[in-house]
Amino acid sequence: MKMSSWLLRNELIKTRAFVFKNWVMTKRNIFTIFEILFWPVVGFLSVGLLTEFSGLQPRMRAFLLVGVVSMSTIQVCQLDVAYVLLYDVWSKAVKHGFIAPVGIRHLLLGSLIVGIARGAAVFFILMGASYYFFGFDFTTVGTGPMILFLLGLFLCAATVGILVCILVLIFGNRADVAAWSLVSLMLLVCGIYYPVTILPRWVAPVSEVIPLTYFLDYFRHFYGFKPAFSLVLPKGFILVFAYLFLEITLMKAALRKAKKTGLLLKLSE
Amino acid sequence: MNFAVEVKGLRKTFVSGWLRKRKTEALRGLDLSVPEGGFWGILGANGAGKTTLLSILSNLLTPEEGKVMILGREVRAHAMELCHKINLSSGHANFLWSLTVRENLEYYAMLYGLPGKRRQTKIEELLHLFDLRRFARIRFDELSTGTKQKLSLAKSLLNEPELLLLDEPTVGLDPDVAHRIRELIQQLHREKGTTILMTTHNMKEAETLCEEVAFIKDGTIKAFGRPKDLKRDLRLGDTILISFQGRLPVSTLEGMEGIYGFQANDSTCRILVDDHRQRLPQVLDLFIGQKVFIHDLRIQESDLEDVFMAFTK
User: Fold this and answer.
1) How many A/B residue pairs have CB atoms within 8 Å?
2) Do the Cβ atoms of B96 and A21 come within 8 Å?
3) What is the DSSP track for A147-173?
4) Kindly report the CA angle at B92 between B89 and B94, in degrees rounded to 5?
5) pLDDT 10s per residue in chain B (313 long)?
6) Nearest to A265 among B61, B113, B114 (CB)
7) Burial of A256 (0-12, 13-18, 19+ CB in 10 A)
8) Chain A partners of B85 at a C-beta cutoff of 8 Å?
């Protein structure tokens, strides 16, 4: 077998290991089913019914439903990226993973694949629910924009999930709370339920450095909302890739630090 | 001689606390060389630095100072390459709780890059070797401690390591399970020639399994060698206790080879010898030759426990 194909196969097997782990853990644990079906649907229906009660115009309803569906999709997808480390932390099996010849790329890519599968499931479930309950059709934007939007959401989710992993490697298992709280912080500043233009002036720089702000802006412009920024898609993707690069570097550094401080061992005790 | 492990001047200090930092020196300039194919035991009290040493060797922990060579390669510079050649099994095994025994092995086999067919063959082989087939479909959190430990050992052999690190592999196990695990470890060393470095509290276990042992105390190796040699060096020897009737030839005993010392009164004698197997016939000959009647004879063998006590005093 050629060296290059051997290396590629090796890479794929190691990446598949993390897909396998997250997938089996997902299907065995009831809370992960709740993450896909219960909380997103409850949240979505609450917001949808609120729009009904408020008598909002279809355009405004679209604004809110896009926001709530995006948030649920990101939340579920980022959890999988975070779980790739958290499952080991909760099992106290961290050391076994890190003595194996795997890189951070395998860990992140493998978990992101499961995250994308679960996130996409949430997106399509809520998309169907939007149409069924509130007559809102997500597909009107077309396949291309939808794929770009989803790609943006999944990459944003990856940045959040990696950040959780970094925090766990720095602060230990008490940082696992970040897996559920970081997304809520994003919710405040990136225009999930309202346009970022209404935010106080001092918050604006924060929302401008969050890629999700641009992806939401991009998707909503198909429903008649004028984008608050120019070149939303390029800005969103440049930012998200910059964060991914930065975070992978930071995660490597955090891992080195955890080996130095002994935290990696503590996470296995 | 080729060394599987070469450690020189290893230092590791743990710092804890946020405001008032507390430093704990775990290793203080430790040196150790384990030859390829050897089976070495690392013995020491709690907190002596045994697990810290193994963690550094498996690149889970970074030392402040010192040289660590594994299989002729510097551990940090060749981390990825060495990961393929090392594995670790520790007592109080923990793995992903929802995965079954087979799934856990499948997962870790994939981490080592084992392709499909080879992976399945290896898993089957290990399930058979460790008598885990009947537990293959049982989730990890439903296993007994002994079975978890067997899984931990099975996992550590997935990549057919050249260096196997065992951190208290039988701690907390029932005697029969511990015995079976010792047999398996011994079999592995005998059949595959794997270099094994094992930490343990159990002196009998170390004496049974290890070719050489090293005593670690306060972060340094205090002594190492074959258990027999260590006992000799410490002049621990064996004790021959004799109850007798007659006149004991004290002056003859004094000059005999291999006798470290003795205490005697009118009817009992306590003789400390280097090795009772060698010296007992001589002692008996002496008693019989002098027509001293022996009522009772007992032998107390010193073991690694005595060596351990001598070093940890």
Assistant:
1) 94
2) yes
3) HHHHHHHHHHHHHHHHHHHHHHHHH-G
4) 75
5) 789 999 999 999 998 887 788 888 999 999 999 999 999 999 888 888 999 999 999 999 999 999 999 999 999 999 999 999 999 998 888 999 999 999 999 999 999 999 989 999 999 999 998 889 999 999 999 999 989 999 999 999 999 999 999 999 888 778 888 888 888 889 889 888 899 999 988 878 888 889 999 989 889 998 888 887 877 777 777 889 999 888 877 777 777 888 888 888 888 988 888 888 888 898 888 888 888 889 899 988 777 777 777 776 6
6) B61
7) middle
8) none
**Which residue matches tokens 């309202």?**
A194
Per the CB < 8 A criterion, the answer to whether A71 and A123 are in contact is no
Flag whether residue A67 sits within 8 Å of chain B, measured between CB atoms: no
Do B35 and B24 touch, CB atoms closer than 8 A? no
| One-letter amino acid for residue A243 of the chain | Y
Q: What is the ipTM of this complex?
A: 0.91
In chain B, which among 110-169 make CB contacts under 8 A with chain A?
110-115, 139-140, 155
Judge whether A124 and A209 are in contact, CB under 8 Å. Answer: no
Does the distance separating the beta carbons of A10 and B113 come in below 8 Å?
yes
CB contact under 8 A, B106 and A93: no
Does A100 contact B108 at a Cβ distance shorter than 8 Å? yes
Name chain B contacts of A87, Cβ cutoff 8 Å: 96
pTM across the whole model: 0.87
- Touching check for B77 and chain A: CB below 8 Å? no
Judge whether B191 and B99 are in contact, CB under 8 Å: no
* Pairwise CA distance, residues B215 & A70, whole Å: 60
Residues of A in contact with B61 (CB under 8 A): 259-260, 262, 264-265
Which chain A positions have a beta carbon within 8 Å of B84's beta carbon? 101
B27 at interface of A, judged by CB pairs closer than 8 A: no
Which of B58, B99, B106 lies closest to A99 in CB terms? B58
Q: Tokens 């969103």: give the residue.
A: A236
Q: Can you give the length of chain B in residues? A: 313
Q: Do B111 and A90 touch (CB under 8 A)?
A: no
Q: A255: number of CA atoms within 13 Å, CB side?
A: 20
- Measured between alpha carbons, how far is A100 from B85 in angstroms, rounded to an integer? 10
Sheet containing strand B212-217, strands side by side = B86-90, B163-167, B195-200, B39-43, B212-217, B220-225
